Amino acid sequence: MKWRLQEGRGEAVYQIGVEDNGMLVGLTEEDMRASLKTLHRMAEKVGADITVLREREVDYDSDVPRRIAEVLIRKVPDDQQFLDLRVAVLGNVDSGKSTLLGVLTQGELDNGRGRARLNLFRHLHEIQTGRTSSISFEILGFNSKGEVVNYSESRTAEEICESASKMITFIDLAGHHKYLKTTIFGLTSYCPDFAMLVVSANTGIAGTTREHLGLAMALKVPIFIVVSKVDLCTRATVERTVRQLERVLKQPGCNKVPLVVGSTDDAVTAAQQFAQSPSITPIFTLSSVTGESLDLLKVFFNIIPPLSNSKEQEELMQQLTEFQVDEIYTVPEVGTVVGGTLYSGICREGEQLVVGPTDSGQFHKLTVGSIQRNRSACRVLRAGQAATLALGDFDRSLLRKGMVMVSPEMDPTICWLFEAEIVLLFHAKTFHKGFQVTVHVGNVRQTAIVVAVHGKVKLRTGEKAVVRFRFIKHPEYLKATMPRSLHSKSLSCFLCFVCVFVLILSSFFTP
């Protein structure tokens, strides 16, 4: 059990009454009680809690009824670092993304007029229009017994972090087409483990829904779908929307296997199969006003395991420190604060790092002050975790989004030119030398010019080629390889211009 919990980064699922070869033999009621009692005693020894996820009877050659059970074992890891999963929330404008997150994290149903989403908005115009234009973060916790921990019982994020053994961090992204660049930045920069595509039941697949689905698939982010606002429609309308989604998912470009979740048993199965197979796509139908099927989504979040195991995490932590800068703030009495994700290594308070590159290609020395994860203090930051770092009186004018903070031992190099193999997904005209595009590589977002298209003069929709690009404003820090636990997102970048999406799949060239 210790090994299973370590491999699962604090949680594991046991199947009782199942042979090693997968045969469902089941146990009698007396044997089942004895097995659960033994499992409970084992869990107590390692400081974990057990939760029975589901039980069912099986047909076996016996006169005595036999049952099988699935049990979730969860504990707070020895280093007191709760399991943290990041979920990007995608979907068309007015599909109910922010409202759903407000209901999940606040613990109160919506009033049908958007009250639940008000706590998520960051700007006045978002409150006035009801449309998200920036990237915001919300958290939902689960304790060792699988119970929900949110703001309904905890006043602050720090209290939620103290009570939770597992944390779901939602990245609320914009749905409107004019904020598409912000959505792409959120997907490439914040390295989500999963993506939740929200579709309104009454409008179906509309607006940017297809674009968001394509972005998640191109970046190889496992995706599941939530059909919201079922309280506004008849059952026939909801079923029509689900069938529409199933048709799109089964198309040759997607090759997904839709799995409609209608019960707790389905939710448990969906969580397990979703993590094991990238082709499985669970579909939930729920309402943020009536709360219909909302518990099924919570069961799914409670059980879904991390994509990386402890061995991969250890390998990342043994590498040199590399922290990408996604946000920059100035906090009174604290000074300059940067937010982002630690790609590799370990970052501690008081650590000496270098940040850059500047417009002239230089890297400046700095000292990390305090560290916060999910708005609560943290002394040590590990690879794959997102946090904010206080830099004290470091000059904010020297910082910009897209920079990296790395260990001085890494001897970072700058990049003006890079090459990549691209696939032109759609463009009304032709793609050729001299084109200016916005390049998204991880947290880097900058305009670049096409210097050369190798082997071809022009590219049309659906064609592939190796293209050389040159940044226009300033050099960037790029790498040809990135850790698998971050889904190799720095190997994927998007070139965005009017009605054009180009996916870069291969490595970079740094002169």
From TrEMBL:
Checking CDD domains in the record gives: GTPBP1_like, GTPBP_II
- Keyword match Nucleotide-binding: yes
Give the organism the record lists.
Myripristis murdjan
This chain belongs to the protein called GTP binding protein 2
Per the record, the similarity remark reads: Belongs to the TRAFAC class translation factor GTPase superfamily. Classic translation factor GTPase family. EF-Tu/EF-1A subfamily.
Xref: SUPFAM superfamilies: EF-Tu/eEF-1alpha/eIF2-gamma C-terminal domain (SSF50465), P-loop containing nucleoside triphosphate hydrolases (SSF52540), Translation proteins (SSF50447)
InterPro entries assigned to the protein according to its UniProt record, in alphabetical order: EF-Tu_GTPase, EFTu-like_2, GTPBP1-like, P-loop_NTPase, T_Tr_GTP-bd_dom, Transl_B-barrel_sf, Transl_elong_EF1A/Init_IF2_C
Gene coding for it: gtpbp2a
The protein's matches in PROSITE patterns, at most eight in alphabetical order, are given as: G_TR_2 (PS51722)
Membrane spanning residue stretches = 491-509
GO molecular function terms listed in the Swiss-Prot or TrEMBL record: GTP binding; GTPase activity; translation elongation factor activity
